[in-house]
Amino acid sequence: MTGRIEGRDTPGTFDGGDAPGIVEGGVLPVDRANIDTDQIIPAHYLTGIETTGLGKHLFSGMTGGPELVASHPGASIVVTRENFGCGSSREHAAWSLADRGFRAVVAPSFARIFFENAYNNGIAPVVVDAGAIDALLTAPHLRIDLEAQTLEAPGGARLQFELDPLRKQFLFSGGYLAFLAGERPAVRSWERARVVPAP
Amino acid sequence: MPKSLFEKVWERHVVEELPGGNALVFVDRVVAHEITTPQGALEIERRYGDELFDPARIVAINDHVSPAKDTETAIQAKLLRDWAKRHGIVLYDVGRNGICHVVAPERGYVEPGMTLACGDSHTCTLGAFGAFALGVGSTAQAGAMLAGCLVLGRPKVMRVTLDGRLSHGATAKDVALCVVAVLGFKGGTGYVIEYAGNALGTLSMDERMTLCNMAIEAGATTAMIGPDETTYSYLRGRENQPAGDAFEHKVAAWRALAADPGARYDREVRIDVGALRPMVSWGTNPGECAPIDGVVPADADGASLRYMDLAPGRALRSIAVDQAFIGSCTNSRISDLRAAAEVLRGREVSVPTIVTPGSQAVKRAAEREGLHDVFQDAGALWTHSSCGPCLGMSMGVLAPGARCISSSNRNFPGRMGAGGRVHLASPAVVAASAVLGRIASPDELGVAPLEAVAR
């Protein structure tokens, strides 16, 4: 099964092998709270018009970020602390993660815009209790089952997590824009029947 | 059932309820800038036949790096320009542009009760008009351009009541910083902040925009202020608004948007702004700030202090700065420039100081008042309008270790340049600091309380 975001040239596959909906891979431990999107990708890399090729800049605004990424070459899951992705709305943060092969970010909380951007780019934002993060940061790799909504560390417990039932569909089929494109007739008819005059 | 301002606006725009507490929300206006629009515009061109839901609802503005600084940014601007022309979309381009959150309201594109989306987190600025104005990613903005809608989880609503009247040199910027400090850097996450309280009545639209601008720094979905006579006066006679009876009919409808007495809120916060002093940030998020007379707190985050090269107990006024910046979507409107000019009049800056008006219209208004002479006589650089150094893209990027006092909104690590350090403050405090070469308040220079000059 593929989580290709429409139009993205980078495949966002949700498989660590043959199993559908499974993200299995190495952990990139980002042991800090409040990682803002300026740290994920600084503004001077926002000068392109495409969504691809940004992986080389991932975490380049974070102290020690490039070294951290370089020392975890096979990682596909970020584990971090609260309020990940705060600040700027730049979807480049999600694009740079996807381009580098990341399929999930595990954190106690996310900033709203990044949370939406992640779903729209084949990256599952997995929310777990803050108390579980210490153990996950030290795990070499994790197995996340997006269908069953479970997360397993080697030798660790199996954690259950919630996904937004609608946005979860965006991960698996078509994506956000395809969904909205299908809603256009409903939106048109709502607009025609609108009571409040349009501004 | 009594309703909040947010509920009224939300309910008038829900096209359809969706699973998971989500809703399909109609978008009245899309504001599109050159950094985050091209990707979605290309996507719609490649996969959806270049068909937009309603180009008349879109306003395009080249704002972040304008004019372009290099080939890449030139391509971004050209793409927006060509796309706008192709679809008949209004474009504000080099010469009559500015920061999108300044240009959109000044051109009359924002009004009470509307929904608005833009691929920029500081879109919450426009909630000052009683609009539901949302910063979104490029894909979500593209969805609004393609289908006229956003998918949104219904946010909770927090009422933040501001009591008292600003004095002691405090400004709307100081309230904005105070709110982030009170709520915390993520304390607003999941909420729309609905501002209320008698302090609002005394705030101009410029000040209300400054206040709403920083709601995102507490993680809030957006902020909203109920429209009143100040709002209607701002919009009356403005371009892109109707004249005469047609406008007054709109005003009558807008009056019904006010929050009902007894409306229920998911959270209530009260702040007395009467005793507020100018605020300055010392750390690496906007919630890490303190009154200018104070010190770096004892319990300050260690990583923030290391980045900022500060220690607990350090008096804020003793911190020397290398650069000063007055501008950004937070504080670049005419009243901000007047406040800064009042401090700089007849004085000289002692560090490189950049003054960047929020729009070319603001620039011209400032020049008609002679403010450009005040700034340049003081030795500051008076630039064209742009997002400028706020996000470290152009026009004043900091060197590693350099310290800037800034009227902008973010002091994140590397925000204004790799390794650069940012202290957030009001325009008047930035101006006073530029003169003294360290964090300073206008009263140290004997400048009259700001509220006398800011409005």
Strand share of the residues of chain A?
15-25%
CATH topology of the largest domain in chain B: Aconitase, domain 3
Number of helices of chain A: 7
Taking pLDDT < 50 over at least 5 consecutive residues as the criterion, the unreliable ranges of chain B are: none
So, the CATH homologous superfamily of the largest domain in chain B? Aconitase, domain 3
Please report the total strand number of chain B as a whole number.
Answer: 19
Query: How would the global form of chain B be characterised?
Result: globular
Number of helices of chain B: 15
CATH class group of chain A: Alpha Beta
**How many separate domains make up the residues of chain B?**
2
Helix content class of chain A = 25-40%
Biggest β-sheet description of chain B: 5 strands, parallel
**The CATH topology of chain A, please?**
Aconitase, domain 4
Briefly note the structural class of the backbone of chain B.
alpha/beta
Main structural class of chain A: alpha/beta
How confident is the prediction overall: mean pLDDT of chain A?
A: 89
Radius of gyration of chain B: 21 Å
Q: What is the gyration radius of chain A calculated from CA atoms?
A: 17 Å
Q: Which strand order do you get reading across the main beta sheet of chain A?
A: 4-3-2-1-5-6-7
What would you give as the CATH superfamily of chain A? Aconitase, domain 4
N- to C-terminal distance of chain A: 43 Å
